[in-house]
Amino acid sequence: MIINNFIMKNQYIQIFILSLFLVLFSNVSKGQNDTTKLQNKNQIASDNYFSLQEKGRYEFEILSKDNEIREQKIYKYMFLAIAGIILIIGLFVIFVFYSKSKKIADLIDIQNREIQLREIQIGQLSTILNTVQSAVILTSADGKIKWLNKTFNNFYGINLETLQQENKDNFITNIAGEKEKEYIEKCMTDKQSVSYFIDAGENKKYKLQRNIFVITDDKGNISGLAITDNKITE
User: Fold this and answer.
1) Angle at 145 between CA 143 and CA 148, to 5 degrees
2) CA-based nearest residue to 215, from 234, 188, 180
3) CATH of the domain at 212
4) Which of 198, 105, 185, 116 has its CA nearest to residue 156?
5) Could you give the C-alpha distances from 61 to 10, 54, 68, in angstroms and in order?
6) pLDDT digits over 165-178, tens only?
7) pLDDT confidence tier of residue 106, bands split at 50, 70 and 90
8) Which of 76, 80, 78, 77 is nearest to 88 (CA)?
9) Domain of 120?
10) How confident is the model at residue 28 (pLDDT cuts 50, 70, 90)?
11) CA distance readout (Å), 195 to 28, 172, 187
């Protein structure tokens, strides 16, 4: 009886120890499972972190490249704009230069034609004046002799080259007398022609009538004098 009781107590003890062992084992297993789950969660979180970090880095690189592309486009557009402005300014300068050059060329052409016309007119006038029977003198406004016709040479036996060599080529100071200077002054003041007789010299059967005319420019200013000597037979 005692032995049976002892055996039954031992069985209870064994069952208790087995139950305790099972509890401990289940707790250990549960702890290991929890640890594994925690590790898995940590791994997943770590993977997610690195994934997010990689995604952020990738997006940052994309944004950086987009910014670089935008900057390149801005520089490109700025360059094109500056080049366009320079081109427009260059074309404008060329246009202005061409317009002014054309105007200058037209003015020069007009002036050349006017000069040619004047030369033709002067040549025709010289031909006419050289054939008249009157001695003709053309001077500047201060009396400097610019031209003499052939009749003057025949009248007085002297030409312009000789007068210039002798420094006597000023009509007012070298040829005109004191009374004539008064006539010349009146002629230039009133801008009207004057006429008077001059001494033809001894043993001459004619008188010399001198006429003085003022020559004016386009603005009405006196540019010279025209003097003619005509023979008046008594």
Assistant:
1) 140
2) 188
3) 3.30.450.20
4) 198
5) 74, 10, 10
6) 988 889 888 888 88
7) confident
8) 80
9) 1-131
10) very low
11) 154, 16, 10
Nearest alpha carbon to residue 226 among 163, 132, 145, 161: 145
In this structure, the answer to whether residues 104 and 169 fall within a common structural domain is: no
Report the distance separating Cα 133 and Cα 135, nearest Å.
7
What is the distance between the alpha carbons of residues 95 and 160, in angstroms, rounded to a whole number? 51
Q: Are 214 and 188 in contact (CB under 8 A)?
A: yes
Within this chain, do residues 27 and 43 fall inside the same structural domain, yes or no? yes
Radius of gyration of the chain (CA): 63
User: Is this structure's pTM higher than 0.70?
Assistant: no
Q: How many domains does the chain have?
A: 2
The per-residue pLDDT for 78 is: 84
> Over 60: is that where the pLDDT of 24 sits?
no
Strand partners, 135: 229
For residues 31 and 158, which has the higher predicted lDDT (pLDDT)?
158
CB burial of residue 222 (10 Å; 0-12, 13-18, 19+): middle
